Amino acid sequence: MPGLHRTFSFLTALILFLVGQAHAGEVVEQQFRSELLNRNYHYQVYLPDGYAQQGARRYPVLYLLHGAGGDEHEWIESLGARQTLDSMIAGGQIQSMVVVMPGHLQGWWVDGASEQSESALLQELMPHAESHFRVLATRESRLIAGFSAGGYGALNLALKFPRRFAAAALLSPAIYDPLPPAHSSAMTQPPFQTDGRFDPARWRALNYTAHIDAYKRSGIKVPLFIFSGDHDTFGIALQSAQLYEKLRLHQPGEIALRIVDGDHEGSLWRAVLPEALLFLNARLLPPLAWETARVMSYNIRCGSCERADDVNHWSRRKLLVADVIAKSGADVIGLQEAELFQVQDLAALLRDFDWAGVGRDDGKEKGEMNAVLVRRSAFSITSQKTLWLSPTPDQVSKGWDAMLNRTLTLLQLRSRSTGKELNFLNTHLDHMGRDARNESARLIAKTVQNLGVNRPVILTGDFNAKSDFPGYTWLTATLRDAASVTRTPTMGGGISFNGFGTDLQPGNKIDYVFVSQGTEVGSHRIITDLYDGLYASDHFPIAVEVHWH
Description:
Blueprint: H1 4-18, E1 26-34, E2 39-47, E3 61-65, H2 74-77, H3 81-90, E4 98-102, H4 117-132, E5 142-147, H5 149-160, E6 167-171, E7 193-194, E8 197-198, H6 200-206, H7 212-218, E9 224-229, H8 236-248, E10 255-260, H9 266-281, E11 291-299, H10 314-328, E12 332-336, H11 340-350, E13 353-356, E14 372-375, E15 379-388, E16 407-415, E17 421-428, H12 434-450, E18 457-462, H13 470-476, E19 480-481, H14 482-485, E20 511-515, E21 520-526, E22 542-548
Parallel strand pairs: 3-4, 3-5, 5-6, 6-9, 9-10, 11-12, 17-18
Antiparallel strand pairs: 1-2, 2-4, 7-8, 11-22, 12-14, 13-14, 15-16, 16-17, 18-20, 19-20, 21-22
Helix pairs in contact: 1-3, 1-9, 10-11, 12-13
């Protein structure tokens, strides 16, 4: 196909020109100590434009493997990967993705005679990268590609570990069968040596031909994009065609072969990279939209607990509580110790809020309630239920050694903008009964488990205990404490109970927000605002920004 190479180059240049004003992604240097290699392992990471601003979004991840004589800088400095990614992401041709470019000189990405390059990549590099950057660490969102020896490595990894990769791209892959040509670096480099000489048996044991039968038996098909120049000096055009023929009938429609005018050269790989990225991107799941909400847990102190002449009487505090909530921008607020008139006051002051909850003493209006305020413009309440924290949760009751009736409010909410749904739970555990607190936590954890995994879960509440109480362990076996998984540092200190300023003990945090797996926490803050020295409540509220699909 003469001239196709020039066409690719022209198209690439045109794309870069058209989106030359687009914001660029960032390339960062990373390293860690490799125990398998007994040295530092270096890699580069491309972070797409907007990565830093979108603190909860997770991205697909692409691993790019360099050739035998290269390092982690090869894809950026020689092949223009950064510019190509910038332009294609900005142009909407491919999803925003994180790209990891490891460096392993002469390793060929196999566990060869000298070093465990394959094991270091799978067991050390990938876990390190996928824990330090916000990537979707699943097969459906993980891609791999490589050129020359990197293409050899990418093919081996795709065939040996098909459950790890959604697709692979092989650019002039050095996949020689049965043996490399005499002028290939494979003949002299460490992975394939025995006693200082090239070992044909070792080559055959490590090459893809040793893995292809097991790959076919696995039943999992990894889509492959295969590319070569027609006069590649190492004869890779023929090798690529042979690989294509071996798999063409096994995975029809999921393998592509491109042979173009060119040699074994970087300009060719640079030119074809856009087409390879289009192939890979087409095998990813569509990007998921994230729902965002600001939630709050707030014990507002019962409205009838102070004398009328007390500075902390509700008639004076209600404006302060409403101001705290309004300034936080919270969309959903789990209230504790709320009496009916307090909830009505707040709904009237805040205006854009519906609410749900029942009195704990009669299931209607009598007694405190774990009410939930819901911003009307953000969410609709699709269902609501109240459970009593006792062995008979479906009826008004007191449980175990509790002094008072205690309840759990359960709501199903639906986003008005996206239609995404959310389970929101709010509770208040007993202040006296130790067994009651633990058994209540166990009951809540079981309730959450029975909700299933179709919707994310957020649990707010005053648990009347620090995190060392046994019930916390029950809850965190099912949910995660938002303070421990927030993407940004927690703010506001470690005190949630303040006793109107008379009981400010360090570490006295007894209020929590818990979230289910898969729910991202963008921020966690204890709000400690004062109003001319006055406290809005005897508890500080906890405000958390959450994100979910």
